[in-house]
Each structure stands twice: as C-alpha cells, then as structure tokens.
Amino acid sequence: MDAQISTAESKNWKAPFFTIWTGQALSLLGSQVVQFALIWYLTIRTGSATVLTTVTMMALLPGVFLSPFIGPLVDRWNRRVIMLVADSSIALVTLILALLFAFDVIQVWHIYVIMFVRAVGGNFHRPAMTASTSLMVPKEHLTRIQGINQTLNGGLNIVAAPLGAVLLELLPMKGIVAIDVVTALFAITPLFFIPIPQPERGSGEGGTPTTFFQELMEGFRYVLSWRGLLGILIMATMINFLLSPATSLLPLLVKEHFQGDALQLGWINSIFGIGVVTGGIVLGVWGGFKRRIRTTMMGLIGIGVGTLLLGLIPGRAFSLALLAMAITGIMMPITNGSLGGIMQATVDPGMQGRVFSLTGSAATAMIPIGLALAGVLSDTFGIQIWFQVGGIVTLLMGFVGFAIPAVMNIEDGPAGRSDQQA
Predict the structure, then answer these.
(1) Which residues, 6 or more positions from 111, have their beta carbon under 8 angstroms from its beta carbon?
(2) What is the pLDDT of residues 154-197, one digit of tens each?
(3) How many CA atoms lie within 13 Å of 300's alpha carbon, on the beta-carbon side?
(4) Are residues 188 and 20 in contact, defined by beta-carbon separation less than 8 angstroms?
(5) Which positions ≥6 away from 178 have C-beta within 8 Å?
(6) How many domains in the chain?
(7) Full residue range of the structural domain in which residue 159 is found
(8) 294, β-bridge pairs
C-alpha cells in the first residue's frame, strides 16, 4: 500500500493524472466517431442484424477469453508500458483500416478482424488505466473521478454521434477512420513523459517471488471469497446477456422500426449522452446514499424502466424513444459510478488488475451467446423483443439485489477482510 500512500496523497497528483486523462479523452472521442461511422456503414451496406451482432461479438470475445490472463500481467508488468503498447497497437491497426478504405478493397471480414485486434489492445489498456487511477488519485476522490469519467462518457455520446453523422456527409470513410489515428497520438504522447506508480509485488512462501500461475489463482480466490461480488457478477451476466444484444441492434431499431436514418441514430445517441451527463451531475451533487450499493441498485431499476419503454414504444412515436433513452442515460452513471467507486476503494491496489479483468470477463461471458441468438432471431422475429425482455430482467435484478444481504454488504470487502483490519 506504500505506493498508493506516497503518490495518491501527494498534493501534486492532479497535473500528471489529468494530463494523461485528457489525452485518453481525446482518443476516446476519435474512437467513438469512427465506431459510429463504421456501424452505420455496416447498417447501410448489409442491413443485417447478424452482421451488427457479429462485429459487436468481435469486440467482446477478447474480454471474455483473455481478460483472466491479462489481469495478472497488468499486476506484474509496468502499467505505463502496457498502456503505451496497447494504444500504439490500436492506432496501427486503425491506420491499416484507413488504407483498406483508401484503396477500396475493404470487406466486412476486414472490419471483424480489426475490431478484434482493437479489442485485445483495449482489454490490456482498460485494467491498466483503472488500476493506475487508484494509485494516482487519493482514495477520497476516487468516486468523484468515477463521476467525471461517467460525465465524459455522456459528453462523448452527445458529441460523437452527431459529429460522426456530419462527417459521413463531408468525408469518405478513409478520412473518418484516419481521425482515430490522429487522436490516438494525444493518448500516447503523455505516457512517454509521465511516470505511473506501481503497486508492491507480493511474494510466496519464504519470500520468493510468486509465479504468473500463482498470481492468477490468487486472483480467482480473491474474487470467489467475496460473496457480494459474486452476486453482482451473476446479476451482471444475466443483464448483459440481454441488454448488450439490444444495444448492438439499436441502429436497426432506428432504421427499421422508427424509419430513421443516421441523423435519428445520432439524436438517440446524443440524448443518451445528455442523460449520462445529467446523471453524473446529479450523482456529483447528491452523492448517493450513504451505502453506495443502494444507489447502484436504484440506478439499475431505472435502466430497466428506460430499456423496457424503448421496447414498447410504437414506430410513430420517436420522441418517446428519446425520452426512454434519456431515462436510461441518467441512470447509467448512477449505477456504474457508484459501483466503480466501491470497487476502486475496496479492492487492494496490488490485486486490481486481476480483479477488474476477472470481473469484466465474468460479466461479459454470456454476451457472445446472446449476440449470436439476437442476430439470428431478430432477423426472423423482429428487434423490439430484445429491449422488452432485457428491460424486464434488469428491472427485476435491481429489486432482487436489495433482497440479497451479501450484495448489500459488498462495501465491507471480501470475506474475512474486515476481520483482518479490525
């Protein structure tokens, strides 16, 4: 814990942290603009729910199968180097994608492969950045930083979708994809100059360094001993099984059910983003309940309500769809910001790479199956059913969470930890 105390409690933590954070934010903007353009490109070119769910699956598979092994590497290796290599690799494959568009040889499978490679880099980058945040930011400010991150995500949704729609009218796809390469430089450059603290490495019996396998198993034991976290993971797995396919099908919902185009999709994403920013502000001003897990469960119920409404609205009532997306957006930071603050404040810094990777992998494990089913069945039976079922399940999980003591006591940490600290 010495690394966290010496760095996170420093009065000078803001400048280095927010320099890196700003570069990452600019890179995320470029990535989301390109992602919007690619999704709409595939929607217009193929009109297939199977294609859209497949490209989403390519972005998820590395997280499901590689994250458990990435976590120990994040805790063992230099986290600054991990982020440098990950960001650089993502920029390189994106440049290849731009060249494929430039030479007019792009195929759908090219996009699948490049999305997969980008996802591998992202699954190294995310736990490294999240774990580094815990060492760069004082503990009392972690929830606030979570709120800022949630507000950033909302702001990007406001800006990225309309910007992507405008750029689709002004630039060829090669030019839009190249934007992501340029913005990636803003994320990469600060990492060359700003050091990132490392947690103290654990050791085995007799003081000998632990092996990769030992640290991998230690991560599994840490998560399995935490009954509240296991309850959250089971809930997240069930929700993601239905909500992630619904999200990936949103472009087709706009195009086919609401008879819209890229502008309407942009409005949907922007209203969602405005909701996220609003929710982040509400959470920042209100602060949530004293037990942050109560705030998380309340937000989860709200997400269920908004998603269910989106699945029930008739095609002629697009304005009501915007209201449903606003409700969902408001509840997202209230849910994720509170839970993220709990995790960063409770999990040992030296374990965070493993824990965040394992929990992320477990929570997304069922998504590929859901996507595979959603693509085929929605092409056959329609799209709205996924929003209806996903909304009902999410709503129920929020109420069920309040009834599970282990979930409501998650802030006490893993089993036995409070006893050791007493």
Answers:
(1) 38, 42, 55, 97
(2) 677 677 777 777 787 787 888 888 888 888 888 888 888 888 87
(3) 26
(4) no
(5) 95, 98
(6) 1
(7) 2-196+212-413
(8) none
Q: Is residue 284 part of a domain?
A: yes
What token pair was written down for 244?
Answer: 């992630």
Which residue type occupies 173? Answer: M
Instruction: Please write the tens of the pLDDT for every residue from 332-387.
Output: 888 887 887 777 777 776 776 677 777 777 667 777 777 777 777 777 777 888 88
Tens digit of pLDDT for each residue in 205-251? 444 566 667 777 777 788 778 888 888 878 887 887 877 777 778 88
- Residue 39 burial class via C-beta count within 10 angstroms: exposed 0-12, middle 13-18, buried 19 and up: buried
The full DSSP string for 14-82 is: HHHHHHHHHHHHHHHHHHHHHHHHHHHHHHHHH--HHHHHHHHHHHHHHHHHHHHHHHHHHHHS-HHHH
Which amino acid appears at position 287 of this protein?
G
Strand partners, 209: 203
CA gap 144, 14 in Å, rounded = 13
CATH number at residue 47: 1.20.1250.20
Instruction: Tell me how far the alpha carbon of residue 286 is from its chain's centroid.
Output: 24
Cα(381)–Cα(402) distance, rounded to whole angstroms?
34
- DSSP code of 139? G
Burial class (CB in 10 A: 0-12, 13-18, 19+), 19: middle
- 3-state DSSP call for residue 209? strand
| Location of structure tokens 């797995």 | 237
Give the C-alpha separation, 378 to 245, whole Å: 10
- Pairwise CA distance, residues 362 & 236, whole Å: 9
**C-beta separation of 354 from 67 below 8 A:** no
